[in-house]
Specification:
globular, single chain, two-stranded parallel ribbon, 46% helix
Length: 410
């Protein structure tokens, strides 16, 4: 008898199971709209031209080696990443109250931030502090905070299924009713999975309540630049909260906007009250990192750092990001137009009102099942689709498949 005989079989991670099922499907018209990764119009992964250029520069740089990075990561990567999030003219940066931790992707940034908050936020060992995540949210948010030790994870109103948009009234009401010092996980832009973002005026209303009620903002910024094609526009909410005097965390990912998925390049930006507080926070972050991954990997961080710290490469990268964002926006326009031309029941304006990589189609679980089994179009059970999976070659088939699902399955 094995000592591990009582270990239960864990359910597969839904999005990776979907991709595995897709790979095993031999249908010639199969389409994968599940996994959150950019694809070209030929439905192929895209290595950004600027990334290829920087990789060559790194190979040819004889001064580089494979020694350990500092525990908190590559300094020039950390500072440049925080500037991208907060802006070059950030008063918080000038006041020396912004710090950062290089992490293993956006997930690692969330986990290190969550671990610190559980240990040190508003007193020691805050397992009972409520953590609020949007309903719906990226599936990993709940697990990351639960595994960090938080016992009270609650949903806040976000998606209004009837109008296929933001439930602002419900969101504001949850902010008003949340216990003081609760932690709110906020999507900085391109909300996953709905693609529905608050307007600047709506963000201001949220910030007013959160400031008045002493609620902590933990931003997840996985798609800066990828949502609108404009880095500054996509960071508006973060920068507004900082301008209002919030102490906050920002989990940054460079998977999407640099196409560095498997390099696991992330950054946790911290905005503190003052430099003295920041120094103490970073000292504790260093202890957490030391027992988690000890030192972060260098390759991806060097690619991002060299790009962000060179005006020429930075401009080229912004052009690459704009290329990706514009293709997604084009697919949104075309999908909505084709569904309307087919006379597909319901309104499809939300396809273009939403932003970023994902769209919450409004398809129900039975319709999703029909799409997968009958049409070989793979999407999440929630009805979320990756707009990057649409191309000029498959968009007619996808639109027709959605039309059939809506008209044939209730």
């Amino acid at each position: 008898m094995s000592i591990f005989s009582d270990v239960p079989q864990a359910p597969p991670v839904a999005v990776f199971k979907l991709s595995a099922d897709f790979r095993e499907d031999s249908h010639p018209q199969k389409v994968n709209l599940g996994v959150g990764a950019y694809r070209t119009d030929d439905c192929q992964p895209w290595v950004l031209p600027v990334v290829k250029k920087v990789e060559r520069l790194i190979v040819e740089d004889g001064s580089l080696n494979h020694e350990y990075l500092p525990i908190l990561g590559l300094p020039e990567f950390r500072s440049a990443s925080s500037k991208v999030a907060l802006g070059d003219d950030s008063a918080a940066i000038k006041d020396n109250r912004v710090g950062a931790v290089q992490c293993l992707g956006g997930t690692g940034a969330l986990r290190i931030g969550a671990e610190f908050l559980r240990r040190w936020y508003n007193g020691v060992n805050n397992t009972a502090t409520p953590v609020y995540v949007s309903a719906p949210t990226w599936e990993n948010h709940n697990s990351v905070f639960a595994d960090a030790g938080f016992k009270d994870i609650r949903p806040y109103h976000y998606w209004d299924a009837a109008k296929r948009g933001l439930d602002l009234a419900g969101f504001l009401d949850d902010l008003e009713k949340a216990p003081e010092h609760s932690i709110f996980v906020l999507h900085a832009c391109a909300h996953n999975p709905t693609g529905t973002d608050p307007t600047p005026e709506e963000w201001k209303k949220m910030a007013e309540i959160m400031k008045r009620r002493n609620l902590f903002a933990f931003f997840d910024s996985a798609y800066q630049g990828f949502a609108s094609g404009d880095l500054d526009k996509d960071a508006w909410a973060i920068r507004y909260f900082v301008s209002e005097g919030f102490e906050l965390f920002v989990a940054q990912s460079f998977s999407k906007n640099f196409g560095l998925y498997n390099e696991r390049v992330g950054n946790l930006t911290l905005v503190a009250r003052d430099s003295e507080n920041l120094a103490r926070i970073l000292s504790q972050m260093e202890k957490i990192v030391r027992t988690t991954w000890s030192n972060p990997p260098s390759q991806g961080a060097r690619i991002v750092s060299k790009t962000l710290n060179s005006p020429e490469l930075f401009a080229e990268w912004k052009g690459n990001v704009k290329t990706m964002a514009e293709r997604v926006l084009l697919m949104r326009d075309q999908l909505r137009a084709k569904l309307q031309a087919l006379g597909t029941p319901g309104t499809w304006d939300h396809i273009t009102q939403q932003i970023g990589m994902f769209s919450f189609t409004g398809l129900n679980p039975k319709q999703v099942e029909f799409m997968i089994k009958e049409k070989h179009v793979y999407l999440m059970a929630s009805g979320r689709i990756n707009m990057c999976g649409l191309t000029t070659k498959n968009i007619d088939y996808i639109a027709e498949s959605i039309h059939d699902a809506v008209t044939k399955v209730q």
